[in-house]
Design brief:
The protein is of the alpha/beta class and 689 residues long. The chain is built from 29 helices and 20 strands. α17 crosses α20 and α17 (431-441) packs across α21 (507-522). It is globular.
Length: 689
C-alpha cells in the first residue's frame, strides 16, 4: 500500500467516525478537517462553512464555504467548494474535470452579487449571508480566490490558475487535492517548490552583494529590488511569500500602510532612504556573473520574514500608483537557510529584524520551550482508561505538522497496533487545537471564532509575555487540566449536532461560546469548575454535559439572533459584543451542577502540591545528570569557562563542588545551577565532545 493510499484510508476512517459520532454529513466533517489545513498553510485566513446548492447541470449553483470578510484579508474574497467522494479507493481527476466542479461556484458568485438573488433567500440561509457580504464588500474586493477541496488525487499540472476577470477584479482558482493534503500532513509542505525566476519571469537577474564569507555557516546577500519587480512577484505568489510559521504565528499579513503608500505616490524616489527594507530567507539561490558583477538569477522558496507591510503597500500601488513604481527601490537582506534549520534560524531573524514590537511572537515557533514542554508531557503523562475501556492512554501533542503520521509510519504493523492503543487518533491535538481549548475556557470565544490562526496568534502573544515571567505554572497539573478542557471541547463538538434545536451551521462558534459560558458561570471567588475530576475520569459527567448543552442552546440563540442591521451570523460571532451578550444572560443550570464544581481552596492546594513535587523531581533529575557526567567533565567545564572569562564567582563555587565528586556531592539547587552554566557556555562555543 502506498503512502497516499494509506493516508486516504485513514482519512476516510476519521471522517466516517466523526460523522457517525456527531450526526453530521461526511462532507461537512471533510470540510471542517481540511479547511483547518488551509488556514494553517496560509491559503486562507479563516474558513466558515456556508453550504448551499440548487439546480442541476448548467443551472447548478453551489458553495461550501467562504474565507470571512474580505476587508480583513487585504480585499481577497475566498470561496470554497468541496469535491468529496465516499469510497475506499483513491480516485483521480484531471483539469478537464475542474470546470464542472468550479462552474457552479462561479455561477453562485455571479448570482450572489445581485440584490435580487439575495432577497429571494431566507435571511438565516448561509447563502443569504454570503451574498449580503459580497454585495456589501464588493467595492473593496481586490481579488477572488476560488478553492477546490477534494479527497481525490488531482493529476493536472496547474497549482493556481488565473481566470477571466469579473469586471476589473481578477479571479484565480487552486486545487487542494488528496496528495496535497497528504504532503502537508506529513511534512507541513503543501506545494511544490516556489521558484522565483528573475532571469526569465521578472525582467532580469538582480544585482547582489554577497555578505558572507565562503566558509560562513549561512549564505547572505544584500540586494536592491525594483518596486515593479516586488509588486509583480507578490501579485503572482501572494501570501506564499509570507506563509507557514511567520505568517501564522506573527500575523505578518501583507497589510497596506498609509504612510508607505503616500511615499510611493508622492515621493517614490525617497522610498529607499525612508524605508527599512525587507529581511528574507530562501532555501536556495542561483547566482550568475554579469558585466556589473554578481547577480541572483532565481530564488527557491523566498519568505519575507520582516517587511510584510512594505510588500503589501508596494503591491497595492499596482492599482493606485503604477507609474510611480518605476522610481521605487527596496533593499533586501536575503539569507539562505537550509529547510532543516529554518525553525532555529528564521524566528531569530524575525525577532532581531523587527524591533518595533516590544513583545515579539517571533520566537513562538514549534521549537519554543512552551511547545517542547507540552510535547514532553504528552509523551510521558498517562491517563487512566475510561470506564468500560481496558487500556490506559496518552494524548499526542503535535507541535510540528507531521509528527504523528511520521512516528506511526516508521513502525511495524505490530508496533502500530501498540502505538494506536497508547496514542488513540481521537487524542491527537495540535498547537491551534491547544489554543482553542485554552481560549474557550478563558472567555475568548469571539477570538476563537475568528479562525485557528488568528486565535493562535493572540494565544501566542499571551504565552510569549507570561513565559519569561513564570514558566513554572505550565507544569504537569496545568497540562492535565488542559486535557480536561480538550475533553469538554470535543464532547461538545460531537453532541451539538444531535440537538433538536440545532439547524446546521455555526457548530464551531456554538461549541466555543457554550464552553466559555459554562466556565464563566462556574468560576467564582469560592468555587470553580472541577477539571481534575474530568481528567482523572477522562470523561464529562452527565451533569456537566447537561449544563454545557443548556449553554450551547443559549449560544445558538445569541449567535443566530444578532442585533438589527447585522446579517452575517458567522461575522457576528467574531465580535466582542456577541460574547458580552451571551455572558450577561442568566442560565438556570440543574441542581446537580454543583457536583461539577470544586472549592477554589482545594484547587489551589492541588497546584501548590504539584509545584512542590515538580521542584523536587527536577532537583533529583538535575543531581542525577550532574553525577552521570562525572567530575572530570565538570573540571573541563570550569577550566574552559575560566579561560574564556565566562564564569561568575558563584559559577566557580558550584563547579568546584561538581569537580570534587564523589568526595562532595552538589545539592539539587547546585546541580540545577551547574546545568544552567553548562547550557550557557555551550552557547559561547564550549564543545563537550
Amino acid at each position: 500500500m502506498s503512502q497516499l493510499e494509506e493516508y486516504h484510508q485513514n482519512l476516510m476512517a476519521d471522517i466516517r467516525r466523526e460523522a457517525d459520532a456527531s450526526g453530521i454529513l461526511m462532507v461537512e466533517a471533510f470540510f471542517d478537517r481540511m479547511t483547518e489545513r488551509l488556514t494553517e498553510a496560509g491559503e486562507l485566513e479563516v474558513a466558515d462553512r456556508a453550504y448551499y446548492q440548487i439546480g442541476e447541470g448548467a443551472q447548478k449553483l453551489r458553495i461550501d464555504g467562504y474565507a470571512g470578510d474580505p476587508r480583513d484579508a487585504e480585499g481577497v474574497l475566498g470561496l470554497i467548494v468541496c469535491d468529496f467522494v465516499d469510497g475506499d479507493e483513491v480516485q483521480t481527476f484531471g483539469k478537464s474535470d475542474v470546470s464542472p466542479i468550479l462552474n457552479p461556484l462561479i455561477r453562485f458568485l455571479k448570482k450572489a452579487r445581485t440584490e435580487e438573488f439575495r432577497d429571494s433567500l431566507n435571511e438565516v440561509s448561509p447563502a443569504f449571508q454570503v451574498s449580503d457580504l459580497i454585495i456589501t464588500t464588493w467595492s473593496r474586493v481586490t481579488k477572488v480566490k476560488l478553492i477546490l477541496v477534494s479527497n481525490r488525487q488531482y493529476i493536472g499540472r496547474d497549482d493556481a490558475v488565473k481566470l477571466a476577470e469579473l469586471g476589473d477584479v481578477p479571479v484565480t482558482w487552486s486545487v487542494w487535492d488528496l496528495a496535497r493534503f497528504e504532503r502537508f500532513d506529513r511534512s507541513g509542505q503543501a506545494r511544490e517548490d516556489m521558484v522565483i525566476d528573475f532571469a526569465n519571469d521578472f525582467g532580469a537577474p538582480l544585482p547582489a552583494l554577497k555578505a558572507s564569507q565562503t566558509d560562513a555557516a549561512l549564505e547572505s546577500y544584500l540586494m536592491i529590488v525594483p518596486g515593479q519587480q516586488l509588486a509583480a512577484i507578490y501579485d503572482r505568489w501572494g501570501a506564499r511569500l509570507l506563509e507557514a510559521n511567520v505568517r501564522s504565528f506573527l500575523q505578518a499579513r501583507a497589510k497596506t500602510n498609509k504612510g508607505i503608500q503616500k511615499t510611493v505616490k508622492e515621493e517614490p524616489e525617497l522610498f529607499f532612504p525612508y524605508n527599512n527594507g525587507l529581511s528574507a530567507t530562501a532555501d536556495e539561490v542561483t547566482c550568475v556573473r554579469s558585466e556589473e558583477g554578481l547577480a541572483i538569477a532565481s530564488i527557491n522558496n523566498l519568505q519575507i520574514v520582516n517587511g510584510a507591510q512594505t510588500t503589501g503597500s508596494i503591491h497595492s500601488a499596482l492599482k493606485t500608483a503604477k507609474e510611480q513604481l518605476s522610481h521605487v527601490f527596496v533593499q533586501m537582506k536575503l539569507t539562505v537557510v537550509p529547510p532543516d534549520r529554518s525553525e532555529e534560524i528564521v524566528p531569530k531573524i524575525s525577532e532581531y529584524a523587527n524591533t518595533q514590537n516590544k513583545v515579539n511572537a517571533a520566537d513562538f515557533f514549534s521549537n519554543h520551550p512552551f511547545h517542547i514542554r507540552i510535547e514532553q508531557f504528552s509523551r510521558s503523562v498517562i491517563f487512566t482508561a475510561r470506564e468500560g475501556e481496558r487500556h490506559d492512554s496518552k494524548w499526542f501533542y503535535e507541535r510540528s505538522r507531521g509528527q504523528f503520521i511520521n512516528a506511526r509510519s516508521r513502525l511495524t504493523v505490530a508496533q502500530q497496533k501498540k502505538f494506536d492503543l497508547e496514542f488513540p487518533k481521537a487524542q491527537l491535538f495540535s498547537k491551534t487545537d491547544l489554543a482553542k481549548f485554552e481560549y474557550s475556557a478563558s472567555g475568548h470565544p469571539h477570538i476563537v471564532s475568528r479562525g485557528a490562526q488568528k486565535n493562535f496568534a493572540d494565544f501566542a502573544r499571551e504565552i510569549g509575555e507570561a513565559w519569561p515571567k513564570s514558566d513554572s505554572k505550565y507544569d504537569e497539573l496545568w497540562y492535565r487540566r488542559l486535557i480536561a478542557k480538550a475533553i469538554i471541547f470535543r464532547r461538545l463538538e460531537s453532541e451539538v449536532p444531535k440537538q433538536d434545536w440545532y439547524e446546521g451551521g455555526y457548530r464551531a462558534n456554538i461549541v466555543t461560546y457554550a464552553m466559555a459560558k459554562v466556565f464563566h458561570d462556574a468560576n467564582g471567588q469560592k468555587q470553580m469548575l472541577d477539571l481534575d475530576t474530568i481528567w482523572r475520569r477522562q470523561a464529562v459527567s452527565d451533569a456537566l454535559l447537561r449544563a454545557l448543552l443548556l449553554a450551547a442552546a443559549e449560544a445558538h440563540d445569541a449567535i443566530t439572533h444578532p442585533p438589527t442591521g447585522v446579517r452575517n451570523m458567522s461575522e457576528w460571532a467574531k465580535q466582542q459584543a456577541c460574547w458580552n451578550g451571551l455572558k450577561s444572560r442568566t442560565l438556570k443550570y440543574g441542581e446537580d451542577f454543583g457536583s461539577c464544581l470544586a472549592l477554589v481552596d482545594t484547587v489551589r492546594t492541588e497546584e501548590r502540591e504539584a509545584r512542590a513535587n515538580t521542584v523536587l523531581t527536577e532537583g533529583i533529575n538535575a543531581q542525577a545528570e550532574v553525577v552521570k557526567l562525572k567530575a572530570p567533565f565538570w573540571n573541563n567545564v570550569m577550566e574552559w569557562g575560566r579561560a574564556k572569562k565566562k564564569l561568575t564567582p558563584k559559577d566557580m563555587q558550584v563547579l568546584e563542588i561538581c569537580s570534587s565528586m564523589p568526595r562532595r556531592i552538589p545539592t539539587d539547587f547546585q546541580a540545577k545551577h551547574a546545568l544552567e552554566v553548562l547550557a550557557r557556555i555551550r552557547e559561547h562555543g564550549f564543545d563537550s565532545g
